[in-house]
Amino acid sequence: MSKIVAITGAGAMSECMRQINPDVVPAFPITPSTQVIEDFSQFVADGKVDTEMITVESEHSAMSACIGAAAAGGRVMTATSSAGMALMWEMLHIAASMRQPVVMSLINRALSAPINIHADHSDSMGARDAGWIQLYAENNQEAYDNLIMAPKIAEHMDVRLPIMVCMDGFIISHCVQTMQLEDDNKVKEFIGEFESTYPVLDTQHPATWGALDLQDYYMEHKRAQHMAMKNAKDVIEKVSTEFANIFGRKYELFESYRLDDAERVIIAINSVCGEIKEVIDERREAGDKVGLLKIRSFRPFPYEEIAQALEGVKIVTVLDRSESMGAYGPLFVEIRAALFDEPEKPMVYNRIFGLGGRELFMSDIHDIFEENKTYLETGKVEKRFDYLKVRGG
Amino acid sequence: MKEKYRLKDWQELPLGGVVAEGGNSADYETGTWRTSRPVWVEENCINCLNCWVFCPEDAFLLKDGVTKKGTPRKEIKSINYYHCKGCGLCARECPVNKKGKKIAIDYVKEEH
Question: DSSP letter at B19?
Fold first, then answer.
């Protein structure tokens, strides 16, 4: 039965995994994703799922086991964070290239050094070229809903790509929020049975996996992978519509919050969007035409759709919660690329915030809207790129 | 000889670079790799089959034959240039070549 529960983000992920009841879960604990697997292993111990849980010796092994189990013909899930996913690096690419629809809960956390366990997006943004679908979530409910949709998107025959469902470490993963926990059977019914392709355990139809691929075929395989990721855009929309029809919550590739007549817009990812919405509501009360574009799907990236949504907007502040040293932030780069072909481009600039979990308060967001107001009035972007809330300027 | 191997378009490939059937390496043309080629000189060949033993590509094809005394044996039939990479091991291991008086497997530059 569907019910409202008070639960942490990580707890919501493990509840969702219980409902999905995957065949195999190989995992290695790392803060802040630990609770996902901790809670789920309790479900395994209590016999609430049929999952084969594999406790491996490292994240590299965890992702290797995911790929092997998926190739064998199973539905596979795992969870990790930060350095854990960094250790999976080689295998992330292999999961995507071997077209295994592995589902991962990624609890976003900063990368070392200096060592830091709090939220930023340097883990997932670093992995943006690994060939995984990336969905982001503002809160527990969205993360839970994304994870319900994840297997259906990843396993679609036009896609067959691994998917990571991302949320901010601690801010979402460890904070209790109320959310709608859907009925077990309805979730199972929505996801359906896993359909495997060329399963290794099918000895009647032997196949070779991961064979040497030289100059004559490698590029064709990459081209096919590119197409799968392009297809993913339509499939995400299709699955999201199906989800809305059954569960009543509608998600797009990105969320447009009070964007229709907005002149000044912030574009951001994940939990900070909650505060931004509050600030927008306050400013709208005073007649200030401000809005938010919140990214849900970063890979595939909806370039045309975003350009269309920003039509009429005069200035855009792109907030990046990760650094690409010596370059602009990863979200900013995409947004600028999306807008380049538009006849009337808004002014666009980039701010880095929240690295290693540093808070961005509502007053800071008011400051951002004050700054882009000044930029718009003077017609000049004083600083294209800057850090927010860093001592020494 | 197999039908010439056609390189497929990306739309035709099985998912994830899988090789979806067994034993299809015989379909793969390695003959295009040659820079030199062995040429079998039948009248000088003693049918010791050393070339057939050493060939890494199984490119020496055999036929049934008999010795001078009438005992059945296998003899060299031809070289399969679809698979021969032109490594030259056959010419080097040929005992007739080694004696130095005659050439049973010549090794010449590939003409493209």
Answer: B
Q: Do A227 and B20 touch (CB under 8 A)?
A: no
Contact A227 B22 (CB under 8 A): no
Walk along chain A (393 residues) and give the pLDDT tens digit of each residue.
Answer: 899 999 999 999 999 999 999 999 999 999 999 999 999 999 999 999 999 999 999 999 999 999 999 999 999 999 999 999 999 999 999 999 999 999 999 999 999 999 999 999 999 999 999 999 999 999 999 999 999 999 999 999 999 999 999 999 999 999 999 999 999 999 999 999 999 999 999 989 999 998 999 898 999 999 999 999 999 999 999 999 999 999 999 999 999 999 999 999 999 999 999 999 999 999 999 999 999 999 999 999 999 999 999 999 999 999 999 999 999 999 999 999 999 999 999 999 999 999 999 999 999 999 999 999 999 999 999 999 999 999 998
Closest Cα in chain B, distance from residue A92 (Å): 14
Cα separation, A209 vs A90, in Å, equals: 16
Examine residue B102 and state whether it is found in any structural domain, yes or no: yes
Chain A residues within an 8 Å CB radius of B20: 198, 205, 207
Residue B35 in domain? yes
Residue of B nearest to A212 (CA): B17
Close Cβ partners of B61 (under 8 Å, ≥ 6 residues apart): B76, B77, B78, B79, B80
Cβ-contact A33, A10 below 8 angstroms: yes
Residue B71 lies in a domain: yes
**Chain B residues within 8 A of A94 when measuring between CB atoms:** none
Cα gap A351→A371, rounded to integer Å: 11
| Domain span at B50 | 31-109
The CATH code for residues A3-247 is: 3.40.50.970
ipTM: 0.88
- Location of each CATH 3.40.50.970 domain in chain A: 3-247
| CATH 3.40.50.300 for domain A254-387 | no
